[in-house]
Amino acid sequence: MSVNAEQRKLAAIMFTDMVGYSSLSQRDDRLALELLEEHRELLRKIFAEFNGMEIKTIGDGFLVEFNSALEAAQCAIAIQRALAKRNADAAAERQIQVRIGVHIGDVIHRGGDVYGDGVNIASRIEQLAGAGGICVSMDVERQIRNAVETRFEKLAPTELKNISVPMDLFRIVLPWERQGGRATTHEIREKRASFPTSAIVVSGIFLIIVIALGWWWIAGSHTNLASSRVEGGGPATPNTRTLAEAPPSIPEKSIAVLPFQNLSDDKSTGYFSDGITEEILNALAQIPGLKVAARRSAFQFKGSDLDLAKIGQTLGVAHILEGSLQKAGDQVRINVQLVDVKNGLQAWSEKYDRKLDNVFAVEDEIAKAIATQLRVQLTGGAGQPLVVDSTNNLKAHELYLRGLSLLAARGPALLEARDSFQEAVGLDTGYAQAWGALAVAEFLLPSYGLDSFDASLPRADSAAKRALSLDSNTASAYVATGMANYFHCRWADADQAFRRALVLAPGDAEAVNQYAQFLSTIGQLEPSLREIERAQQLDPLSPIIGVIHAGVLAVLRRDAAAELQIKSVLAAHPDFAPALTWGAVQYIDRKMYPEAEVLLRSLGKLNGQNGDAKALLARGMADPDQRVAAVNSLEASPDNADIRRDAIWYAFYLISLGERGRALDELEIYATKLNSAFVPWLWNRGFDPLRDEPRFKAVLAKLALPYTPPAVTEP
Fold first, then answer.
1. Closest residue by Cα to residue 260 from 247, 271, 252, 248
2. Is the pLDDT of residue 109 over 50?
3. Cα–Cα distance, 168 to 95 (Å, whole number)
4. Residues 6+ positions from 20 with CB-CB distance below 8 Å
5. Is the whole-model pTM more than 0.85?
6. Which of 226, 262, 535, 654 would give a disulfide with 512, using CB separation of 3.0 to 4.6 Å?
7. Exposed, middle or buried by CB within 10 Å (0-12, 13-18, 19+), for 434?
8. What's the rounded Cα separation, in Å, for the pair 639 and 701?
């Protein structure tokens, strides 16, 4: 068979992942590599014992093919048994834990690799297994249930990312686990009939523990941070509050809306219950004086068994709304209850039985009832609706709700979100909210490498204008309009659009976040800091808001606080690329090159590389003898192509490696495009060597920024 020939077959696919490797590599790169090699040697021996064929390594994990589900399951159990035995005698810092996912399905062999739904599903299943755990699909469980001496626990229903077909998943309860199994981050079983749990979202209690451990490591490994004094040696201000300090008091007028439980027979319509939840959340966000936890933070507790008091403390809210939704034909039943998290008592509950053609009225009724309970004065008086009935087309509305769910997921799901919104407006061309959401989705695509700015911005502009022509009170359309003007360097128009969005939806964390980035772009750094802090209060678990907060602090030379922000994000999200990127930049700014090298290597590995090319950049800054090699790698290595695609990012590294002339060349090319996507970086201290250069001043003049921040004195 030729190397390019295809072979289709039924096979059992196993994905493995070494838990905590990225976090360990940041703390101790040498130990991480040592444990990685030990882990690989151990697993490869076990693969061979069960006729497993290693297809490839993926970072710190394996993709392995087996001829049968039984061999794959037996191999997975043998791996976890061997690691449990090894870890029993190992120190805490030398533990090796692996999570494993197994699925059997149709695969395609081509060019030495393997593709198909069987592979895609197995990779998603692996992500649901906890440390030391094994997660399998229903097809695997059915084939092995009578052939292995273990029992199985069915996981709560969940939707696998980018997998359209609903699947039943099971956890293998390993013989050496204590009776009843153990709850892990992704293994939350059905313990409450009133609110069954989901296996797809990280449990809040573990997030709190991880962040606490991240702080312990920061304090223990970098003792200078615990006692650091910023801004020229003065004590830390509230803007630089550390994780060790007491959290701010929780306002009484505050609420989190947890995702409604979907009790419908058709579990594939989970996006409908999520969408209803989101519309109520967005309605409440319009009420001045009411703090509403943002979707990204609230939805991390989807189906969680965590005590509501803990959820309230984590999100910084005094009240939680939870409920359930059951859809059957054209009827919908919604049960809701409002809980006071201080005492755990139910403050209010209600049941709504409505036809779906009146679902907007139900959403508005619930939102107003909650506001009344919280004694908040409604915008425009109690008679003004909070949820606008913007379409009579039920199918268009369902597509819009599905799109909102995909939009919040970000990443590749943005393409599906765009398609859903496009279908919605195709069915109802007068659907203003869908047009506004479509505009936001289009604007986000280039930031995730899913489209070019040249292609997406005109479509986004057009969608935003259409939304506003249909309904001048569509907040998402103003956010999109602000982003459009921001990208095109129309600063005054962008400011006006963002301000209008915040008038319409003052509690919208995404709108606040985008406005903070705009303010940072035009050099309004202190106002930007205030806005991003407000966004973080609304969305405390958002990693991107945490990273942007760190970036603004770094530009203001509040280094200790910026470092704490980045490390707290990485403690909870060790593979979050923007945190690795900005963390490396901040270390380079401070000439902490070994620390920058660790993060750059991790970033390279996250991109599927060995990390050497990116690590060389930091070594070239530290060692003049390696500078030429580092510059050559920056300009030619395929592993650094992602840096070269972004002119300002590229220029930053050129400056740091002493290539100021080349950096100015790149910036001049960038300025001709009049695209402000990366302008905030220009205030970074890495560009200080160019501040007095006439060519650099000409770049700023070309961008026509309304304000240039004063130089910040080094502390």
1. 271
2. yes
3. 31
4. 97, 131, 574
5. no
6. 535
7. buried
8. 33
Domains annotated for the chain, with CATH where assigned, are 6-200 (3.30.70.1230), 254-389 (3.40.50.10610), 393-505 (1.25.40.10)
In terms of DSSP H, where are the helices of 505-638? 509-521, 525-538, 543-555, 559-572, 577-589, 593-606, 612-622, 627-636
Query: For the stretch 263-273, what's the b/e string if a residue is b when 16 or more beta carbons lie within 10 angstroms of its beta carbon?
Result: ebeeeebbbbb
Distance of alpha carbon 171 from alpha carbon 656, whole angstroms: 49
113-115 and 98-110 as β-strands: parallel, antiparallel, unpaired?
A: antiparallel
Task: Choose among 327, 182, 180, 349: nearest CA to 266.
Answer: 327
For the chain, what's the residue count? 715
Instruction: Answer yes or no: is pLDDT of 552 > 90.
Output: yes
Q: Is the pLDDT of residue 692 over 80?
A: yes
| pLDDT one-digit tens code per residue, 62-74 | 999 988 888 999 9
Of 86, 96, 179, the C-alpha closest to 132 is 96
**646 neighbors 678 (Cβ within 8 angstroms):** yes
Return the structure tokens found at 255.
Answer: 């609420």
pLDDT at 124: 84
pLDDT at residue 171 greater than cutoff 80 = yes
Greatest CA separation for the chain: 77
Provide the pLDDT confidence category of residue 651 given band limits of 50, 70 and 90.
very high
Place of tokens 């209600």: 350
- Of 512, 519, 455, 520, the closest CA to residue 478 belongs to 512
Residues 6+ positions from 122 with CB-CB distance below 8 Å: 13, 14, 15, 101, 102, 103, 105, 137
DSSP three-state, residue 610:
coil
Q: Which of 707, 709, 705, 708 is nearest to 489 (CA)?
A: 705
Task: Give residue 30's identity as a one-letter amino acid code.
Answer: R
Count the helix, strand and coil residues of the chain and give each as a percent rounded to the nearest 5. 55, 15, 30
Q: Taking residues 611-626, report their average pLDDT.
A: 94
What are the tokens at 91? Answer: 């120190």
Contact 311, 320 (CB under 8 A): yes
According to the model, what pLDDT value does residue 531 have? 93
Q: Is the dihedral of CA 530, 376, 311, 363 positive or negative?
A: negative
- The structure tokens listed for 696 are 């650099």
Is 258 in a helix, a strand, or coil?
A: coil
Q: How far apart are CA 516 and CA 441, in angstroms?
A: 19
What's the Cα-to-Cα distance from 91 to each of 17, 40, 135, rounded to whole Å? 21, 19, 27
Token pair of 530, please?
Answer: 């205030």
Radius of gyration of the chain from its Cα atoms, rounded to whole angstroms = 26
C-alpha distance from residue 315 to each of 245, 523, 550 (Å): 16, 30, 20
Band of the pLDDT at 385, cuts 50, 70, 90?
low
